[in-house]
Amino acid sequence: MTGSLxxxxxxxxxxxxxxxxxxxxxxxxxxxxxxGPYLDRVPATAEQRRHASDNRVELQRAxxxxxxxxxxxxxxxxxxGDPGIFAMAAAVLEAVEAGDPxxxxxxxxxxxxxxxxxxxxxxxxxxxxxxxxxxxxxxxxKPRDVxxxxxxxxxxxxxxxxxxxxxxKARPDGLGAALDLARGVQAATTPVVFARAVSRxxxxxxxxTLAEAEATMADMQTVxxxxxxxxxxxxxxxxxxxxxxxxxxxxxx
Length: 253
Ligand code: SAH
Hints:
Elements: E1 4-9, H1 20-28, E2 31-35, H2 36-39, E3 49-53, H3 58-70, E4 74-79, H4 88-98, E5 107-111, H5 116-124, E6 125-126, E7 132-136, H6 144-156, E8 160-164, H7 174-183, E9 191-196, E10 204-209, E11 222-226, E12 232-235, E13 241-244
Parallel strand pairs: 1-4, 1-5, 2-3, 2-4, 6-13, 7-8
Antiparallel strand pairs: 8-11, 9-10, 9-11, 12-13
The protein binds S-adenosyl-L-homocysteine (SAH).
S-adenosyl-L-homocysteine (SAH) binds at residues 12-13, 79-82, 85-87, 115-116, 164-166, 195-200, 220-223.
């Protein structure tokens, strides 16, 4: 048997938002590797072996998956959302780059998934309708001053900004600092969306403004999206509103 490794995006949560190609790759695997809660989303089959690991050990998990594939297993590594966005596709290729040269002969594929920011934008309307960027607030893997520099530049450039990994016990102040930076640049009325557990049973979506936004509105299952100068609300007839970032840009003069 020739080994293979497929890095599979599970999407934001609900099975309906997972690509058919992802379901096929999962069904074809002899071994599933991933963070425990993600593995729990994959329907169990009798013959498959599951290798659950902790969230922080991505490189170790990637090496484990590559070792299994090199010994002939058909391995699927699972990621939430898209595996190429702050996730396992990069971890696997980093492990290949630094690891056993034999790993370069493996068939390695990536199956994309719907990322949290896309699912969140869809839930509120069209928040990513114009230029946007994604920034992870996790400082495990990059220095804090890089985060602050990128945030400032993105705010100056007037992007819609999706903040991943917004908060954790280790750095409770990261999101608060990011919101303060945003308040120094964008108007107080700028829409901010806190989208938690999008497409799961415990989904909560809060649409607020930069003036009202607080770090306590987010946890690690939340993606926080700060609008650009163009982002606005479109009122619904029965109350509530869609969030719109229009496709054309009106430069402030
Ligand atoms: N690869 C993932 C991101 C992994 S980083 C993707 O493409 O979505 C983990 C962060 O993603 C979380 O801290 C949170 O900010 C965000 N996230 C993942 N799934 C989410 C969901 N269903 N709802 C809201 N945010 C989510």
